Amino acid sequence: xxxxxxxxxxxxxxxxxxxxxxxxxxxxxxxxxxxxxxxxxxxxxxxxxxxxxxxxxxxxxxxxxxxxxxxxxxxxxxxxxxxxxxxxxxxxxxxxxxxxxxxxxxxxxxxxxxxxxxxxxxxxxxxxxxxxxxxxxxxxxxxxxxxxxxxxxxxxxxxxxxxxxxxxxxxxxxxxxxxxxxxxxxxxxxxxxxxxxxxxxxxxxxxxxxxxxxxxxxxxxxxxxxxxxxxxxxxxxxxxxxxxxxxxxxxxxxxxxxxxxxxxxxxxxxxxxxxxxxxxxxxxxxxxxxxxxxxxxxxxxxxxxxxxxxxxxxxxxxxxxxxxxxxxxxxxxxxxxxxxxxxx
Length: 344
Ligand SMILES: Cc1cc2nc3c(=O)[nH]c(=O)nc-3n(C[C@H](O)[C@H](O)[C@H](O)COP(=O)(O)O)c2cc1C
Hints:
Blueprint: H1 3-17, E1 32-34, E2 51-53, E3 56-58, E4 62-64, H2 74-88, E5 91-93, H3 98-102, H4 108-116, E6 122-127, H5 128-133, H6 138-146, E7 151-155, H7 158-163, H8 174-184, E8 189-192, H9 200-208, E9 213-215, H10 224-232, H11 249-257, E10 265-269, H12 275-283, E11 288-291, H13 293-302, H14 304-325, H15 330-334, E12 338-340
Parallel strand pairs: 4-5, 4-11, 5-6, 6-7, 7-8, 8-9, 9-10, 10-11
Antiparallel strand pairs: 1-12, 2-3
Helix pairs in contact: 2-4, 12-14, 13-14
The structure holds flavin mononucleotide.
Flavin mononucleotide (FMN) binds near residues 68, 194 and 272.
């Protein structure tokens, strides 16, 4: 197995079998409360949780965030995730597709997503480090076509690259690379972190070069510093402070909530683990919410039915919040009064 393939396998194994959550930090959404509406004036069966994302209709605003691909077992994982996403009409991301640029041995581990999910939005994925080194958009366009993707996610992960044993912390040229992709690619570009958050300042710099979609992927869920520290093992002792490094999801959303450019669209992720959190993300300005490890662990530990069960619960949670705030659709939920503890 190549280094890239074996790294992708390590990541799934560690995320399923080890404690890799943030230790001293949450995603901050527990600080936010909706105002209870004692007179909702609507019937629960009349509530519409559907939304459009990248021109396609979803049953509710959930994205299975990009996780895997590029080694043998990933084909089954991506196949199962995609099948559930298609059945439940969600969006789904592929994990980093760097391996697919190295050779075609595991192309099926990505292609199976579009085969199992012909109608939903699927996001291709590549790292900022690769983008910084790209001379033109051809490799990225190739990845988009491999899975007939509706958008390309560029994951920016400086903390992870810095701590990764084989990491490449070379980010000079990323903005130029993003500008080139925005100009040349046939689909939109989404800039995403992997759990350390995107500040307003960083989002604005990406927007200045034409990136309209920001997935804040904030701190409080999976700690990618934690994952890489476990992979490093003993040897050079790195400060445990990095384990909890990053901008909590709710803070990143709050920074982009007001006065952001009109054409900037926000995806919320990082520690999303129920449908009440999804509702809060929408009220804080996100178009849709993403979740990675909580969905992967349901699938890997208990199978596709457990994954369906978890997602069904999240949809029910969202419905509950909409009913209890009197919001008959997501537009109204987004305008619902929400306030921070101590400020209500
Ligand atoms: C096993 C696993 C592999 C991941 N691989 C990728 C990846 O290849 N590309 C990417 O953009 N994000 C990757 N992520 C990061 C997630 O998309 C997400 O941003 C991060 O885990 C925070 O979300 P969570 O708290 O819901 O897990 C991966 C996550 C997991 C759990």
